[in-house]
Design brief:
The structure is a homodimer of 465-residue chains.
Chain A: H1 14-23, H2 35-45, E1 48-53, E2 61-63, E3 70-72, E4 79-87, E5 92-100, E6 105-114, E7 117-126, E8 134-137, E9 140-142, H3 144-147, H4 160-163, E10 169-177, E11 183-184, E12 187-194, E13 205-208, H5 210-216, H6 225-231, H7 247-259, E14 263-268, E15 276-278, E16 283-285, E17 291-300, E18 307-315, E19 319-328, E20 331-340, E21 348-351, E22 354-355, E23 385-390, E24 400-407, E25 421-424, H8 426-435, H9 441-451
Parallel strand pairs in A: 5-11, 6-12, 19-24
Antiparallel strand pairs in A: 1-17, 2-3, 3-4, 4-5, 4-14, 6-7, 6-9, 7-8, 7-13, 10-12, 15-16, 16-17, 17-18, 19-20, 19-22, 20-21, 20-25, 23-24
């Protein structure tokens, strides 16, 4: 459209509206305490059965002769291939299976004001890989195959608001990485769109304030990974009078971490991946470490199609994802790790202080727990925040991680950490998230918790005069 | 280092210091009018001879048996391979040779105040591909091979300031793309480092204000591509009271352009690239369009090594790179094109309004001149800015483009342009440049011109009260 006036480059008032929503611990539409019952009700209303099957029972999926890559006959959805990754210094090289899905999916949340407070439309949605199948999900969670109708299922509800964002106002819209240790260069489009008009209701959807979602983020396996990723992109803005490092220094450090080593990832045939073996039910590492590639059959009543089979990637143990938190001059900082992952577009993104190990990590099979933080392991008994969350249940089976925010002190988490780690403020993470591919999906989950948590704002004595 | 206080997230006063430097049309160290003579003097002082050779005379370089890829025996530097690229809608697929150089080089400029005005240390440096060999270059221009000593030449002067940026203050440090139609996912590290102490002088280096560089950018082939790319990253900040689109809308549009099509680029053996042929002297397209891969021998006296041979990519004709410029309510806007290029990390970056065609462009062999702008072709006779610049002379032979900024009007360049084009302010481009991989190298060249040009600031009636 032609504009006859200029707009401010940054929407005034939006940050305050998000803050108000975060302060609203109950909403207009459903009471927070009723949410577990509502999810149970939706689960009861829908058929959703998942069972493991041997690869031979996969329908449309097969191991390609020669390469051994696991792919769908249509050439769409995703495939499981091999990757060979290497660093130059210190030299490290490894091979692993990896999910290849070059298409960009949409993760979108609709926002709308009720009684002057922003609410977000969340879906009670089941995913085959999640132990607790029905969780709070974004309004829309659609692969490109979904919405270009490759599997000819039912239409994706509310998708038009995101395909034609002119029906509303864009609040956030950015490409973000997914798990860099399990996906090869996967991006999803994370969107928040505000509408001012009524949205047709549906029994599987409810409107929540950010404060409500913050409270629900304290329940195990209740807010799914895609929802957490989108909420990390919310334009929250708590005034920060300063930070241990300027934004320029922070960006320079990330650039240095991305540049200082040569890191290469090449796709190779799955059949050629060394130390990984295939039997009737799984592709697995000889040591049984890391993860397995397995197959499931799903019967569902509220999905685009009601019956399907698919591969899933199943980690062998529960993960751990933790941010260490300290207050410097009243401003909260978390300890970020510039973490290299084989599948990331730019190799390095900011991850949490602690994240479960992946193939290729220096000490395989254990979390990449920085040695200097070992003494604080004991603190996990009394974390500032600690909840179990599921990873993406559409690709990962029983993939749960314990998400923690742990308050730390100089003795155990020094202001001057070793190379590869740096204290950053939530505001700095939010600025980076706005431009995409800077903050990994695990760190974004914890940022979503911080975004919905009034307690992590800077101390009021540092509010602007 | 441990910090005992917090720092402001964004350095106060830096924008003003850059503005003062841009206003300084002459400097403390060398008069602007003396620069052509100084460059001629450096050229006279150094031996620099380039001659075409047949591939058979390349030393250490050869076409790999089987793949036909052109590579160095050490496995380092770069290689020329093939690429197969495709869009899904509208469907388009093509193949081409492409330069593969996965390492990240450093393009760095030292800054220092003289008499209270920021100056920038520029090198008179020759590149084998440039018709005018000696041009103003960044202080340091080093591939990883250079500084990890693969070709065992002389040390790269001033490199330590960039490898250990703690010797100075980081002003800019960001990874940026190179030519996406000629390079496969090439990034360079663009840095500006300010020092407060004396820097050892050298006859090939001089300090310039930003205003001086702005004046020199009006001379053909005087400021090289790497210098232009780094200067585009300068933290200039002219207050902009608004823009035709908010930053959120702009980011959303870029995300949409990156998401709406499926775009794949795969590397293939050079020998398999259809429609491209090899003879003793070149790899070229059967139609003789686009570019050729050729070989040269170089003898130089001030380079890291004094004699070498290498392949270069030679475009068949001079390029054209143009931004259309309009003022909306006193604020300058340029018309950006969300341009897909086979070699870019995220496929789409913001390019200039007009850019020479590449393999795969809809109308091969002609500039991608948007049809709706055709009438303004006549305006090129009287552009706001028009200068011929060289592309990267270390990889490209005789690659020159005419860089233009053309003032346009509603009749020829409407406020509401067709899909794929959008009016953006220089400030919006600068914000995007800070995070990397958003603005392509051609558009960055023109942004460097704008950064050094006081005339493109918003009209004073829109300055802050």
């Amino acid at each position: 459209m032609v504009r006859d006036q200029l707009y401010p480059r940054n929407s005034p008032g939006l940050a305050e509206r998000f803050a108000r929503s975060a302060d609203s611990v109950d909403g207009t539409c459903i009471r927070t305490q009723d949410v577990p019952a509502w999810l149970a009700d939706r689960a009861a209303a829908h058929r959703f059965l998942v069972r493991r099957i041997p690869f031979a029972e996969l329908d449309g999926w097969s191991f390609e002769p020669g390469s051994g890559n696991l792919r769908h006959a249509s050439g769409r959805f995703f495939s499981v291939q091999g990757a060979r990754a290497s660093f130059d210094a210190p030299h490290r090289e490894w091979q692993q299976p990896i999910i290849v899905q070059p298409e960009i999916g949409i993760l979108g949340i609709l926002a709308r004001e009720f009684n002057g407070v922003l609410h977000f439309l969340m879906q009670a949605k089941a995913e085959p890989g999640n132990l607790r199948a029905f969780q709070l999900s974004p309004t829309v969670q659609a692969t490109r195959s979904n919405y270009t109708r490759v599997h000819r299922g039912a239409d994706v509800r509310y998708l038009d608001y995101f395909l034609q964002p002119t029906k509303g106002t864009v609040i956030a819209d950015v490409l973000q990485s997914e798990h860099g240790t399990w996906f090869y260069r996967k991006s999803n489009r994370n969107m928040i769109i505000e509408v001012r008009e009524d949205v047709p209701p549906h029994a599987d959807y409810q409107w929540f304030t950010l404060g409500q979602i913050g409270a629900l983020l304290c329940h195990d396996n209740m807010v799914n990974m895609d929802a957490r990723s989108v909420l990390a992109c919310a334009p929250i803005e708590h005034h920060e009078p300063g930070a241990l490092w300027s934004d320029t220094d922070l960006l320079s450090w990330i650039t240095e971490e991305r540049s200082r080593r040569e890191f290469r990832t090449e796709r190779i045939p799955l059949a050629k991946v060394t130390n990984w073996e295939r039997d009737d039910f799984s592709v697995h590492h000889r040591s049984n470490q890391h993860f397995r590639v397995v197959a499931v059959a799903v019967e569902a009543g509220n999905r685009e199609v009601t019956r399907w089979t698919q591969p899933l990637l199943e980690p062998v143990q529960r993960g751990i994802v933790a941010f260490f938190l300290r207050w410097f001059n009243g401003v909260p900082h978390v300890l970020a790790h510039a973490r290299a992952e084989a599948g990331l577009h730019h190799v390095v993104e900011l991850g949490p202080t602690v994240q479960s190990a992946a193939p290729g990590d220096a000490r395989e099979g254990t979390p990449t727990w920085p040695p200097f933080l070992m003494p604080t392991l004991m603190d996990l008994a009394r974390p500032y925040y600690g909840t179990v969350h599921s990873e993406e249940g559409g690709r990962f089976l029983n993939a749960e991680s314990r998400y923690l925010i742990v308050e730390a002190e100089e003795a155990t988490a020094p202001a001057n950490p070793p190379p590869g780690y740096r204290w950053v403020t939530p505001g700095q993470l939010r600025t980076l998230v706005r431009y995409g591919h800077y903050v990994n999906v695990q760190a974004r989950s914890l940022l979503a918790v911080i975004n919905a948590s009034p307690a992590l704002r800077p101390h009021p004595i540092f509010q602007p005069l």
